[in-house]
Amino acid sequence: MSCEYAKERNLLKFSSFACFCFAALGVGIGLWAGSMAIVFDGAYSLVSLFLSLMALGATVYISNGTAKNGKSGQCVSAQKAAVIESLVVLIKGLAVSVVCVVSFASAFEAMFNGGREVNAGFALIFGVVNLVGCMLCYQFVKKNAGKQPSTILKAEASQWLMDTVISAAVLVGFIVAAGLMEAGMSEYAIYADPIMVILASVYFATVPVKMVGDSTKRLWSIYQQQDSVSGHRVLA
Fold first, then answer.
1. Residue pair 167/130 in contact by the 8 Å Cβ criterion
2. CATH code at 55?
3. Per residue in 162-191, pLDDT tens?
4. Which residues form the domain of 36?
5. CA angle in degrees (0–180, nearest 5) for 161-44-17
6. Domain for residue 189, yes or no?
7. Are the beta carbons of 232 and 197 closer than 8 angstroms?
8. Residue 234 belongs to some domain of the structure
9. Phi and psi torsions of 4, nearest 5°
10. Is residue 14 part of a domain?
11. Quick check: 15 and 34 in contact, CB under 8 A?
12. How far is CA 131 from CA 8, 69, 100, 165, 201, in A?
């Protein structure tokens, strides 16, 4: 058990550091280049950073509690760990949902306010670097999580998968914008950035909903088990 939690902690530490780097890079470059899509990518990484730190704190708490309780407390500790892990995943899902909704609203507003000009050439370089980096992080977390990862590591891998697809969507938007500008259709290129944000946020709406649904079902199942045990004790 302690070995599994140690591996989980190390993966979450790596994930937190990577999220910090991508968040700082995305928000900083996005504001400088005037790209809402890059800012959205960086904002998602920033949210992922706080969620990864929260997951890391939960893992440390669970592992310390298990070590202190010993064999006599393993059953209680396992149930408590399941509750904490489910709550972490639930909060992750809710936070990602908020990011998707806010990003969709901002992009939708930009569509009706003349679009947004972007430094497409510079943004293309950022898009490639960001996509490759997120993809490598996703593969690293997924591979090292094992064949039967914990719910926390599953959620962490899902975060990186979402970040990878967001980065891919942003890169496609920049390629389309650059192509339109080269074709002399700059008046249409300004809509590429907000359109990609809208598509990405709509696509990801299903992921946090699934996270929230699964964690809620698990919490309800744990509650029913506790209620059943309490009922048996009363009858006894």
1. yes
2. 1.20.1510.10
3. 788 778 877 887 788 788 878 878 777 778
4. 2-226
5. 80
6. yes
7. no
8. no
9. -65, -40
10. yes
11. no
12. 24, 43, 19, 8, 17
Tell me the backbone φ, ψ of residue 89, rounded to 5 degrees: -65, -40
pLDDT in tens, 77-134: 566 667 777 787 788 778 778 877 877 887 788 788 777 666 666 777 888 888 899 9
Which residue is listed with tokens 């969620």? Answer: 51
The residue with tokens 């407390």 is 73
CB–CB of 40/200 below 8 Å?
yes
* Residue-level length of the chain: 236
- How many folded domains does the chain comprise? 1
pTM here is 0.69
Q: Which of 66, 58, 65, 63 has its CA nearest to residue 83?
A: 58
Token pair 């390629």: residue: 175
Task: With respect to residue 232, please indicate whether it lies within any of the assigned structural domains.
Answer: no
Give the span between the Cα atoms of 64 and 194, in whole angstroms: 46
| Closest listed residue to residue 51, CA positions, set 59, 41, 40 | 59
Angular region, 115: left φ>0, alpha ψ -120 to 50, beta rest: left
